[in-house]
Amino acid sequence: AAPEQLAPNLYGQPGPWTDIxxxxxxxxxxxxxxxxxxxxxxxxxxxxxxxDEPEPALPGGPHATEINAIIARCIKKNPKDRYGSVAxxxxxxAKL
Length: 96
Known about the structure:
The chain has helices at residues 3-6, 8-11, 16-32, 42-51, 64-74, 86-94. It is mainly α. The longest helix is centred in the first third of the chain and has 17 residues, at 16-32.
């Protein structure tokens, strides 16, 4: 779940920006084999989603810096800091 789904009082209501978050989580999981936020039980997972920053998906390699930046932007806590649309996300992906 995106931060705004877990704490709308902190991050506002879900909307199209929530899908951007989910794209980032899926992209992260595809590259690493695990989700960016974990923990033992729902309380720890929720805390991680709301307050922690994940490790970069790629520690190195071709385009690692750019890919990590794209994922990081998708999963920003504040929806206003994420991509404004899937088209913006795809434009950055096309640059790779």
